[in-house]
Amino acid sequence: MLLTGVAAIFAKHICAALVFALLLLMMRNLAIKDKFYYIFIALFLLWIFMGVVLFGLIEGVPKRTSVVRDIVLMAIIILIFKELYNEYGKIISLISFSLFICSVIFVSYHSYKTYLSQKAINQEIIAQKIAGKSDIIIHKKLIYKSKKFIDFGNLQEDLNHWINQAVANHHNIQSISIK
User: Fold this and answer.
1) Alpha helices in the chain (DSSP H)
2) What are phi and psi of 137, to 5 degrees?
3) Suppose 37 and one of 31, 116, 144, 170 were both cysteines; which one would form an S-S bond, judging by CB atoms 3.0 to 4.6 Å apart?
4) Distance between CA atoms of 120 and 141, rounded to whole angstroms?
5) For the segment 102-114, what is each residue's pLDDT rounded down to a tens digit?
6) Partners of 175 in the beta sheet?
7) CB-side exposure of 29: number of CA atoms within 13 Å?
8) Cα–Cα distance measured from residue 156 to residue 148, given in angstroms and rounded to the nearest whole number
9) What is the dihedral of CA 104, 105, 108, 114, to 10 degrees?
10) Strand-pair partners of 178
11) Shortest CA distance to 155 belongs to which of 125, 131, 127?
12) Helix, strand or coil, per DSSP, at residue 135
């Protein structure tokens, strides 16, 4: 079982390395035809460097700093879309517009579900405060958790968690937790 797990981890990294090598080879072939594509190679190597060295080998780098790596990846994607648009203008426009509409619908849905969750939590806090409780307990079913978005603002089971303490201070109550 352990050997299978180790093999799976190595297979994932070997496959990623092969894909990265293939992408670099393809970009090099494009760069031979047009010097503009050296920008792709430079950005791609920078992205790999940041992923491996800064976030893989150096311990203690905060996760929030990975936004720089994401910005470099976005630059690569934008340059690729620019090149594809020059080649296939109408098709890329149609696909981009469709993806944009789907993204807006997706984000709107999760935002609305988060809004409903927060509204229900606030109503529960007010109801328990009116009943004279200063130690508020919220049921887990009221909290909407999405795996697609960071839900760091959700209440936790631990009374001493900073989120719970901030919400308790905001509502002028002793403590708040979920069960």
Assistant:
1) 2-33, 38-49, 66-87, 89-130, 162-170
2) -120, 125
3) 31
4) 10
5) 888 988 888 888 8
6) 135
7) 5
8) 19
9) -130
10) 138
11) 125
12) strand
Q: How far apart are the first and last CA of the chain?
A: 35
pTM for the full predicted model: 0.51
Amino acid identity at 16: A
For residues 66 and 55, the answer to whether their CB atoms sit within 8 Å is yes
- Rounded percentage of the chain residues whose pLDDT exceeds 70: 81
Residue 111 Cα distances to 95, 141, 143, 151, angstroms: 24, 17, 13, 11
Strand-pairing partners, residue 177, are: 137
Please state, in angstroms and as integers, the Cα–Cα distance from residue 71 to each residue in 24, 50, 57, 65, following that order: 19, 11, 20, 11
Compute the distance between CA of residue 113 and CA of residue 98 in angstroms, rounded to an integer.
23
Q: What percent of the chain has pLDDT over 90?
A: 0
Question: Across all residues in the chain, what is the average pLDDT?
Answer: 78
**77-110 pLDDT, tens digit each:** 777 777 777 777 777 778 778 888 888 898 888 8
